[in-house]
């Protein structure tokens, strides 16, 4: 019973990180119909940036905040300099460019910081929180708390503010947005900026567990893709639910299916992607695309 | 003085010239209707005014040149455009559509305006929390117009408001437009295929053919014009 509970708790904590990264994918997809394949590497770069800032003397929280802010700028610049000029291009062109960016960022990180793994401090003290007879690691509870807080902020931004409303409008009907005076490029730029910031947050939260190195996001981004696919690539709720489901399923399967264990866990993500595309291609919460001929 | 005056307006899509030297003027508080066959340049005329198509020539609005302005500046200047096919935000609720309509404005007047336009379109009030995409065609058209009015424009451009609507819905829609004009003295420029109804509510009418104005007159006189009756009203 205790094992099941701790696996569930770990699954939710992992899932929260997948959810925030999946949300980053969903943000850029919803606003521009482009899947940002470089999202994982951007998150890795953000984690390295935070590490570098700490090496220069900043505290963990300040370094994280600055890195998340810089990531916002990076995301916005990426939209303006690469995605927007390519918006009329063939989809494969865009995919190739983003995969190129993925490789470039990976090599860049290796070039600057080398491929030796580095420890990354955690926001939370070691030790456990006692809930009844169960133990929950501070890290687990803290990760879930931080991501929940971010989700609340995003909810308020999108549902309660004018800018959020304009961003949703710009993503769903750019032509109409122009006619009410919304500057669509600026809204999409903010969308890509927020996506990059969310990615940075997940990179910084995951870095203490996987250690800092240029390939640290390989194992994470695949789960984020599984989460976004499972939830539906155009649904924010879907990304969150998908992330949590993937986290929990991954941990339970890794623990209770002996032949999978920790080594083959990544297969779970691939099977989830495959099964979703086979059974419900739009995901649990995705809207079916209707194309008018 | 005219609120809107246009001189030598040209617009093209690539090599195709959609407008070839159009000029007309619309007085404050008037309803003008543009008639013409498909491809005559009616929609392009509205797009040229709102800046959503490349154009040249002079467009004066409220004494200022707006032909170099971006769509956003035109909107901010007080011209609201209801495009063909409604142009609502299908994923957003009716209420959110109205709020987004007032994106460039702020203050307590926005709320008052919302109440005011909802009183003209009571059906929308019942559907405030519904997604715009789930509304009927007529309701979507009402929403598109109410959304445009939330800008508090001085000039309303309407592109085929009757498109795809049942005749009875179209009639009540046009009645509402007249009521809005009478209550606010708002200026309207309407593109229509339904010449009968449009001429009945308009002050002036003009007929476009291949990107040029071939006929212009008071609406009442146009409605009696034999050629118009034959081509657009279906009388022999």
Helical amount of chain A:
over 70%
What is the average of the pLDDT values of chain A? Answer: 90
CA(first)-CA(last) distance of chain B: 39 Å
Biggest interchain interface, per-side counts:
A-B, 16 and 24 residues
Low-confidence stretches of chain A: none
Widest β-sheet, arrangement of strands of chain A? 1-2
Q: Work out the number of β strands of chain A.
A: 2
How much of the residues of chain A is beta strand, in percent?
under 5%
DSSP, total strands of chain B: 10
Largest sheet: number of strands, sense, barrel closure of chain B: 6 strands, mixed
Radius of gyration of chain B: 17 Å
Structural class of chain B: alpha/beta
SSE-based structural type of chain A:
mainly alpha
Shape label of chain A? globular
Tell me the span between the first and last alpha carbons of chain A: 55 Å
Rg of chain A, alpha carbons = 19 Å
Structure, explained:
The complex is a heterodimer of chains A (293) and B (236). Chain A is an all-alpha fold. Chain A is 72% helix and 3% strand. Chain A has helices spanning 2-32, 39-55, 60-83, 91-113, 138-160, 162-172, 174-179, 184-210, 218-231, 236-256, 265-279; strands at residues 128-131, 134-137. Chain A has a two-stranded antiparallel sheet. In chain A, strand 1 and strand 2 (134-137) form a beta hairpin. In chain A, helix 1 runs parallel beside helix 5 (138-160) and helix 2 (39-55) packs antiparallel against helix 3 (60-83). The longest helix of chain A is centred in the first third of the chain and has 31 residues, at 2-32. The termini of chain A are far apart. Chain B is α/β, with parallel strands linked by helices and 236 residues long. Helix content of chain B is 39%, strand content 28%. Chain B is built from 10 helices and 10 strands. A 6-stranded mixed beta sheet of chain B has the order 6-7-8-3-9-10, with helices on both faces. A 4-stranded antiparallel beta sheet of chain B has the order 2-1-4-5, covered by helices on one side. In chain B, a hairpin with a 2-residue loop joins strand 1 and strand 2 (16-27). In chain B, helix 3 (94-101) runs parallel beside helix 6 (137-149). Chain B is globular, with a radius of gyration of 17 Å. Chain B starts with a strand and ends in a 5-residue tail after the last helix. Classes of the chains: A mainly alpha (293), B alpha/beta (236).
């Amino acid at each position: 019973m205790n094992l099941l509970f701790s696996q569930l708790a770990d699954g939710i904590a992992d899932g929260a990180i997948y959810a925030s990264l999946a949300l980053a994918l969903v943000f850029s997809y919803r606003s521009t119909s482009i899947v940002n394949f470089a999202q994982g590497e951007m998150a890795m770069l953000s984690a390295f940036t935070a590490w570098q800032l700490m090496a220069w003397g900043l505290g963990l929280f300040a370094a994280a905040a600055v890195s998340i802010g810089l990531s916002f700028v990076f995301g916005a610049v990426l939209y303006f300099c690469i995605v927007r000029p390519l918006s009329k291009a063939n989809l494969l062109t865009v995919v190739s460019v983003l995969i190129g960016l993925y490789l470039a960022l990976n090599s860049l990180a290796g070039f600057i910081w080398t491929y030796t793994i580095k420890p990354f401090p955690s926001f939370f003290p070691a030790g456990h929180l006692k809930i009844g007879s169960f133990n929950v690691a501070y890290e687990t509870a803290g990760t879930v708390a931080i991501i929940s807080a971010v989700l609340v902020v995003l909810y308020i931004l999108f549902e309660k503010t004018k800018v959020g409303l304009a961003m949703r409008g710009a993503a769903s009907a750019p032509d109409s947005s122009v006619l009410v005076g919304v500057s669509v490029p600026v809204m999409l730029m903010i969308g890509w900026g927020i996506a990059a910031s969310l990615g940075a947050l997940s990179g910084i939260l995951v870095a203490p567990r996987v250690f800092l190195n240029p390939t640290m996001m390989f194992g994470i981004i695949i789960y984020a893709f599984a989460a976004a696919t499972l939830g539906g690539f155009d649904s924010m709720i879907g990304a969150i639910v998908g992330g949590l489901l993937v986290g929990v399923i991954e941990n339970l399967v890794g623990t209770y299916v002996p032949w999978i264990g920790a080594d083959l866990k990544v297969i779970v993500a691939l099977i989830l992607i495959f099964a979703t595309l086979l059974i419900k291609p739009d995901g649990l919460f995705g809207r079916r695309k209707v194309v008018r001929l | 003085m005219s609120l809107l005056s246009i001189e030598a307006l040209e617009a093209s899509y690539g090599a195709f010239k959609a407008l070839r030297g159009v000029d007309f003027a619309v007085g404050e508080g008037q309803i003008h209707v543009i008639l013409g066959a498909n491809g005559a340049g009616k929609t392009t005329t509205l797009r040229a005014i709102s800046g959503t198509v490349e154009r040249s020539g002079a467009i004066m609005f409220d004494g200022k040149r707006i032909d170099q302005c971006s769509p956003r500046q035109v909107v901010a200047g007080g011209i609201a455009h209801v495009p063909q096919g409604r142009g609502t935000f299908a994923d957003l609720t009716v209420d959110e559509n109205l709020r987004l309509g007032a994106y460039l404005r702020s203050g307590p007047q926005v709320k008052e305006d919302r109440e005011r336009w909802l009183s003209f379109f009571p059906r929308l009030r019942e559907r405030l929390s519904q997604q715009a995409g789930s509304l009927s065609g007529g309701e979507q058209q009402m929403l598109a117009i109410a959304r445009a009015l939330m800008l508090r424009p001085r000039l309303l451009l309407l592109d085929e408001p009757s498109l795809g609507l049942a005749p009875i819905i179209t009639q009540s829609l046009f009645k509402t437009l007249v009521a809005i004009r009478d209550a606010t003295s708002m200026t309207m420029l309407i593109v229509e295929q339904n010449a009968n109804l449009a001429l009945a509510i308009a002050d002036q009418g003009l007929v476009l053919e291949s990107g040029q104005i071939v006929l212009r007159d008071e609406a009442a006189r146009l409605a009696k014009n034999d050629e118009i009756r034959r081509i657009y009203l279906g009388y022999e």
